[in-house]
Design a protein that fits this description.
Blueprint lengths: L7 H6 L6 H11 L23 E2 L11 H23 L6 H22 L8 H28 L8 H27 L17 H29 L4 H30 L1 E2 L2 E2 L4 H21 L14
Parallel strand pairs: 1-3
Antiparallel strand pairs: 2-3
Helix pairs in contact: 2-6, 3-4, 3-9, 4-5, 5-6, 5-7, 6-7, 7-8, 8-9
């Protein structure tokens, strides 16, 4: 019976689910007999723990790694870097500094995602476990930055000032540090607080589940609700709201693809339990598209530059 905080169903059924890397090392060092099928050999094992479908590490049985998602991440990195530049140029825009921080954090998650799900590194290795832990930390911090931008948009504190940036950056650091620490403890079992799952086959970690699964969804919902209040209630505008609705739809579609369609794509392209591609690349494209639409929404409710006063000599 599945309990709250169990990663076993996700690690078995969702291809390229990155947080499974943490449990693979945990099981390999404490209960290696649980690893069966394609997961039995760490030198070729795909992301997941005994997955029903996965992509083998590059070089095994002609695998080109998770090539589709590697390309999607690469294109998303270029696109997001462009958004950072465009946001920087909007000198007078409300929340410019905070929104740029959000974009930079999302930008950092992309190469980390590429490495943690790209099928480059050996399962259970120190490098893959550490990279996955850092990836989890930046994902949690990115969703705080998203929610923080909504709070800043209400102008409860003046954007770009110390009263805004100090708590904004503090919570980024807090989410980053806490999630990385918990993830490392899950992977390396430094302590028994967040360490080995009990029972081991359930791959259970409530704190990790909350920070990587519950928190992002909750932050996204709160962000949408606050921005709806800002746009419709405070600004009395309608058109910008459609951008936020579109961004929400794209984000939901990305999650549906990742958790439902990805398995279908993986099995359709699979020989046995081994595949050449899964649906993670579609999820990456949709998530990046959602971030792009958020930029359009933010631009539509902010000023690009200050009005320069014109001096007419007498």
């Amino acid at each position: 019976m599945t309990r709250f905080g169990d990663f076993a169903p996700l690690c078995h059924q969702v291809p390229s689910y990155p947080w499974c890397n943490l449990f693979y090392r945990q099981i390999e060092h404490h209960n290696s007999s649980i690893l069966q099928g394609v997961s039995a050999d760490p030198t070729s094992a795909p992301v997941g723990v005994n997955p029903t479908c996965g992509i083998l590490i590059a070089g095994h049985q002609g695998s080109f790694a998770n090539i589709a998602n590697i390309i999607a991440c690469g294109l998303s990195i270029i696109f997001t870097a462009l958004l950072v530049v465009l946001a920087t140029r909007r000198r007078a825009a409300v929340g410019r500094v905070e929104f740029r921080i959000f974009l930079v954090l999302y930008l950092i998650t992309l190469p980390l995602q590429l490495l943690s799900t790209g099928a480059f590194l050996e399962q259970g290795s120190t490098a893959l476990t550490a990279i996955t832990a850092v990836h989890a930390g930046f994902v949690a911090a990115t969703f705080w930055a998203l929610l923080g931008n909504a709070i800043v948009s209400t102008q409860v504190v003046e954007d770009g000032t110390m009263s805004s940036l100090v708590p904004f950056d503090f919570f980024i650091a807090a989410f980053l540090a806490a999630t990385i620490y918990i993830s490392l403890d899950v992977g390396f079992s430094f302590t028994t607080v967040f360490g080995p799952s009990n029972p081991p086959q359930d791959l259970n970690s409530i704190p990790l589940f909350v920070l990587t699964s519950i928190w992002p969804g909750a932050a996204a919902i709160l962000y949408f609700a606050i921005m709806a209040y800002v746009v419709l209630g405070m600004l009395n505008e309608l058109r910008p709201m459609w951008y936020y609705v579109l961004a929400a739809v794209l984000f939901v579609l990305s999650q549906l693809d990742y958790f439902l369609l990805s398995k279908v794509i993986c099995r359709a392209a699979a020989t046995g339990a081994v595949s050449k591609v899964d649906g993670s690349f579609i999820a990456t494209i949709l998530e990046t598209a959602a971030v792009g639409v958020l930029y359009l929404a933010w631009r539509s409710i902010t000023e690009e530059s200050w009005e320069d006063e014109v001096y007419y000599p007498r």
